[in-house]
Amino acid sequence: MSKKIKAAILIIGNEVLSGRTQDLNVSFISKWLNQNCGISVTEVRIIQDIEKIIISNILNLKKKFKYIFTTGGIGPTHDDITSESLAKALKLKYDFNKEAYKILEKYYGKKNFNPGRQKMAKMPEGSKLIYNPSSAAPGFKIKNIFCLPGVPSILQSMLPNVKKFLIKGLVTHSININLHTVESQISIELGKLQNKFKKNIEIGSYPFFKSGKIGVAVVLRSVNKKELFKCQKELKKIIIKKKINFFNH
Fold it and tell me: Domains (ranges, CATH) in the chain?
């Protein structure tokens, strides 16, 4: 756990792009990876269920990130093409995974194990299964890519089974300070503070409207707790000097 490890999330599904389905997976995966594995998600893409688009994005992200997490497109229907597209992108055979086939056959029973359900057992050759405690159909890992379902409750139940495949990095800690002010009132000071701590701290400023009042959330992020608290101390001095009130409710 001596370095930062970065990951990307690739959301695959026309239903997300159309607005029919609201994505809930990015926030959950990002928080889970940071808190449990010290891995930071630094890029997210949402793409269509189109083979050439999936392939081009996988090949691009694979070069840039330690890990890629895909969501969606591994179900039983005609538009679930993530697994086959991954196989083509990686130039691997797309076929039944014997273990996945047995798991699904047992879950559904031979009589009800129809071609659509059998399709969920097909994946790139050499894939390692990510077990599914909710609905049996496993996800899989191939190279540095983790292929997960799009249904949030199922995905969330599967993430603990991803942990064994991951190398741990440094956890990013954060401090949130809510203020009764507007961004322009503290923008110059925050800029100077960011410049002073640029090696170790990321400072974010986010306006909000709550209880009929305007405020700003200042968020400090770092893997270095000592520097984080040092930066927090200096920020509080700035707040007091400028006579800005804290937003406590």
Answer: 5-165 (3.40.980.10), 173-246 (3.30.310)
